[in-house]
Amino acid sequence: DRLVFFGITPNHSCPQCVLLGEDHDHLFFNCSYSSKVWTTVLTKCNANRQSTTWLGLVEVVARDCKGKSLATISKRLAFCCTVYQVWLERNNRIFSNERKPEEIILKAIICMVRQRALSLNSIKQSPTDYWYL
Fold it and tell me: Quick check: helix, strand or coil at residue 21?
């Protein structure tokens, strides 16, 4: 949104699906590329999509991912890593003309979550931990 406002990117189309105008909600939810990534990540987190807007998702994560169980930590990590990887892919397509398929992005997200989760020392035990392990 800001790049268009400042006139840095005159093309307002999404670099991932090359269709609609790009904004936060499109980039993270309405774009077919991002939607596939989010759907897979949410399935792996045993969560469902409760929002299709940026602010709505942030509210859901802030509300539902409190605590220090493996499930809540995994969901928070998955949210942050997915946002980061989708944004990184967007920038790579615009500034480096590099394109990665969804599968590569998903592997990067899973690797980031796994590495961070393995470094945690004190996690409260929960009945849902087995599924996440």
Answer: strand
What integer is the mean pLDDT of 66-88? 87
Rounded to whole angstroms, how far apart are CA atoms 96 and 65? Answer: 35
* Residues 59, 77: Cα–Cα separation, whole Å: 15
Neighbour-count burial for 94-131, b at 16+ CB within 10 Å, e otherwise: beeeeeeebeebbebbeebbeeebeeeeeeeeeeeeee
- How far apart, in Å, are the Cα atoms of 42 and each of 1, 7, 117, 120? 26, 35, 17, 22
- pTM assigned to the model: 0.79
What are the residues whose beta carbons fall under 8 Å from the beta carbon of 35, sequence distance 6 or more?
29
